[in-house]
Amino acid sequence: MVQLTQVLCKYMPKWVPRFRGSNKSFMRKQHLLSLCGHLYGRKRNCFRIARRALYRTFEISQDKRREKKVFFRDLFTQRINSACAEHDLQYKYFITILPQLNVELDRKILSSLAIWEPRTFKSLVELVKAKRCEEGIDEAARNATPPAGVITRGML
Amino acid sequence: MATILRNVNAAKNIRDLLKKSIEHCTRSERGLKRWQVDTLRVMYWRAQSYDAIPHPERHRREWQNWNYKSELFAFSQRLSEKFSEEMLRVCFTDKSYVEKEDEQRKELGMPEIELRTENNSELAAIGTNKLTPFIKSYLRYFLKNVPEECISAVHNYLMSDTVLADIASKIGCTQLILCNAINPSDEVKAQVLRALIGALMKEKGEKHTEKFIIDFILTYINDQDIMEVWNLPQAEIALSNVLKNNGITEYEPRLLRESGRNTIYACFMVGMYVDKKLIGFGSGETVSIAREMAAYDALRRMFKLTPASTLFKFGKDAYNIDFGSSSQEYSLLNEWKLLDLDRKHQLKSIS
Amino acid sequence: MSNLTKFRRTQQWLTFARLWYLYDATYQDVFDSAIVIAQYLRGMNKPIYDHVRQDVGNHVVVINTSKVSMPVDEWKWRMYSHHSRYGGGQTWAAAHELHSKDPTIVLYKAVYKEVGSAPRAVNLIRSPTMARLHLFPDACIPPEIKANICDQIRQVQPVLKSLKDYSEEEVEKFPKIVDYPEDYVVK
């Protein structure tokens, strides 16, 4: 079904069949039907069915908009996880210690750093490792040798 | 709409046409809408009378509202350069245009009036004479560790017709050019840009022209891989020659990593070693390609052409630099040597 | 000059190269190792990993699958079902029975589950992903596959030695806590 835009609807030719009553309701229906072109069967032609189907799609798309955020957060987490594993560091330490060092980067930026600027990411990882060594939170951290090239307060 | 029109041309009669276009209009064949018939009928006759006829390509100046003088004024305003109108007219007049005008007059049997025989070839020659030394000294100022071949290769690239024509079309020269064709060729466009620089030399002087070249022509190499522009053939032979010049006779390519050797997506990584130090590495789908790329990478690091180390300056930062100091030619690749006396220290190992 | 230069082309080739990993399944938990293997198969060990749009998976060659282990009584109690599509055609087999028939199938099924099932996108990539898994019951690998391997995956648990693996000297040297009394009769 070809739907016209609202502007074109105003200038419709005279031979377009007019509905009984006001033209307003016809226009309103046309406007709604113009959003239903992608639906299947009578959902896109019959107004009553189309309206119900359209409201349903709005609900679904609202849900998906919420899900999208979770989806991408999972993806970024996964990417940082694998990038940390390359440098032999656990994700949980990386993501919790970075803000303690006033490096306030979010997961999106960190994951894109891991892909496009691996050297920058490596330096962040070394920063975290040095912090862990300094604090000596657990057995593994106390025994590990601190990475070279990281200057901490104690050195100065 | 485009699909409908295409069908309009193909359909033999209106009934055929309606059948075909109804599919596009309704997306499903559920009868024929009365209100579509009239539209389609109008469209059909329009297609027969206007769209079906091949229209010749026309230059913008054939329209009535074309004002060449104001276009020229707008051009110089766009670039914020104050060209004189006379000079701009000469710049945009190609040699072929003058010849064509001459012929037309002869054919019409018009009396020989004093014709405007000026064209842009003289100005272009002046422009080229300025461009060549300036581009080279600019490149030499920022690329200190490269042989002369690299400088001339990048210079040739910048002075090539394709690049100059691209720049000319991007600053909006295309429609202003007077030549015998409607769409001017790359050569003509490049000639016009050279002539514009020649005109600046005449009117504004040397210093101003240099600023123009920095702003509009040298910015083209920003973010380009200089090694790729140079396109050095047979990198490994070049590497061995360069090392020999620096007193290093031996280098060793080694296979660093490999995966999927027997598959079609095999990947190899080769490193180049001098004195057990890694000086460059490259990868590829075969060992020979990877080896070539490793030599390529080693040369890139030696010439300091890595993306991090090639930092050109443009705009206000570059205006006040004295490029005349770097007009001396570098040594050729066969005689090229590392700058430091202690060369082996300069061949740093890559971490 | 095209955007895909000589250098960038090879860099791209290197980034998206499929890597071949080796995994030794000797005395390794089937289900724990399946999680790790599935991650490598889907390319989750790379920072360029993508859920849907890109397949960046690796190959994994698993050796010694006949020596895999299961926790506690799992060999006895874990049942695998099979349906012949005829009425009453469903049969069950315990893990140890299945393992005795085909020493690779228990690990295969565990990895198949871990590769993922629910989203449609995963369903589509599952068969090519599983095709990149090469299972061998013992340490013998065909030489054409052996040449491809570039790296190995860390095992999920330490390999324990049995008493047979120790030499007699080592057994004798091992510090004894108690000695048998002289009148003790060993059966």
Automatic annotation (TrEMBL), chain A:
Pfam families registered for this protein in UniProt: Ribosomal_L20
Database matches in InterPro entries: Ribosomal_bL20, Ribosomal_protein_bL20_C
The keyword Ribonucleoprotein appears for this protein: yes
Family matches, as Gene3D superfamilies: 6.10.160.10, Ribosomal protein L20 (1.10.1900.20)
Xref: SUPFAM superfamilies: Ribosomal protein L20
Similarity section: Belongs to the bacterial ribosomal protein bL20 family.
Protein name, per record: Large ribosomal subunit protein bL20m
Taxonomic lineage: Eukaryota, Metazoa, Ecdysozoa, Arthropoda, Chelicerata
Automatic annotation (TrEMBL), chain B:
Record keywords, A-Z: Mitochondrion, Ribonucleoprotein, Ribosomal protein, RNA-binding, Transit peptide
GO cellular component terms listed in the entry, alphabetical order: mitochondrion; ribonucleoprotein complex; ribosome
Localization of this protein: Mitochondrion
SUPFAM superfamilies: dsRNA-binding domain-like, RNase III domain-like
Biological process per Gene Ontology, one example term: RNA processing
Domain of life: Eukaryota
Pfam family, one: RM44_endonuclase
CDD domains named in the record: DSRM_MRPL44
Single Gene Ontology MF annotation: double-stranded RNA binding
Domain called DRBM: residue spans: 268-304
Family per similarity comment: Belongs to the ribonuclease III family. Mitochondrion-specific ribosomal protein mL44 subfamily.
Protein name: Large ribosomal subunit protein mL44
UniProt organism field: Dinothrombium tinctorium
TrEMBL record, chain C:
Key word Ribonucleoprotein present: yes
One GO cellular component, as annotated: mitochondrial large ribosomal subunit
InterPro entries assigned: Ribosomal_uL13, Ribosomal_uL13_bac-type, Ribosomal_uL13_sf
Biological process (GO), any one: translation
UniProt keyword terms in alphabetical order: Ribonucleoprotein, Ribosomal protein
Pfam (any one): Ribosomal_L13
A Gene Ontology molecular function term of the record: mRNA binding
Keyword Ribosomal protein included in the entry's annotation: yes
PANTHER family: LARGE RIBOSOMAL SUBUNIT PROTEIN UL13M, RIBOSOMAL PROTEIN L13
Family membership: Belongs to the universal ribosomal protein uL13 family.
Full protein name: Putative ribosomal protein L13-like protein
Organism this protein belongs to: Dinothrombium tinctorium
